[in-house]
Amino acid sequence: MNFKQIETFRAVMLARSMTIAAEQLHTSQPNVSRVIAQLEREAGFRLFERIAGRLVPTVEGEALFRDVERAFVGLDTLRDSARAIRQLGTGALRIGAVPSIAMSVMSPAIREFRKRHPDVAISVHTSDSPMVAKWTATRFCDFGLVSYVVDTAGVEATLLRDVPGVCIVPADHRLARKRRIVASDLDGETFISLTHGDGTRAAIDAAFVPDRRKLTLETPYAATICTMVSMGLGVSVVNPVVIRSLRIAGVKALPFEPAIVFNSYVLRARQHPEPALARAFLDCLRRAIG
């Protein structure tokens, strides 16, 4: 027996007519008759009788049909499952992200994603770039979002966005009136830094040679830096995406020289297919970043 024979037999049983079954299967009535005859020979018994011009299944045909229906219920379940996966993915999404992304553009991206996938469970795990890379390599997360790339086995990185950093100062600061800030303008200023060991911190520090800033305040979170600046605790250089997303009052963002490029990367587990939900979410994230 093959699937074509079983499908034809089921169509005839449901329609109680070979002509109607042929129309439903987009074939001819002689083809349906031939397939049914082949199935009867392989089964070893008749499936239908002609009684008063009507096609009537035999007792053996009815018994076979019950088993066929059980099999087709399973196929219908598989079709429903495939449709759900196509529309919703596997039903859950686990994201690893550095704080600068998790605390800025992540919420707008989730809001847009929810419009099309309201029932997908989303879990956001936040840490520094090296830890997010480890989560991605072990597939603890479906993908990672980091601010710099560390050498991690089993992970590949794709540039998500690169933007020049901006200098942020309190709105009433003496530098807020300038159109552009250069590194020497920050001589003697309390500079709020990211913590030591952060790759982005190293890139910022390299712009200040000689370094005459007052480095007496640091935090691992760019969002915290922005809040501290709004309270007059110092100045800093940050990713413009962060300050734009947070919309913190009392902060002036100004172009900064020399240019410090803030990169964002998507990390994926190497040699593993990307889930459909991950692709859909990343599309939303790109739109949120702008």
UniProtKB/TrEMBL annotation:
Any GO MF annotation of the entry: DNA-binding transcription factor activity
Keyword DNA-binding attached: yes
Domain HTH lysR-type: 1-58
GO terms of biological process kind: lysine biosynthetic process via diaminopimelate; positive regulation of gene expression
UniProt-listed Pfam families: HTH_1 (PF00126), LysR_substrate (PF03466)
PROSITE patterns: HTH_LYSR (PS50931)
Keyword annotations of the record: DNA-binding, Transcription, Transcription regulation
Keyword DNA-binding annotated: yes
Highest taxon of the lineage: Bacteria
Family of this protein: Belongs to the LysR transcriptional regulatory family.
Name of the molecule in the record: LysR family transcriptional regulator
Provenance organism: Cupriavidus cauae
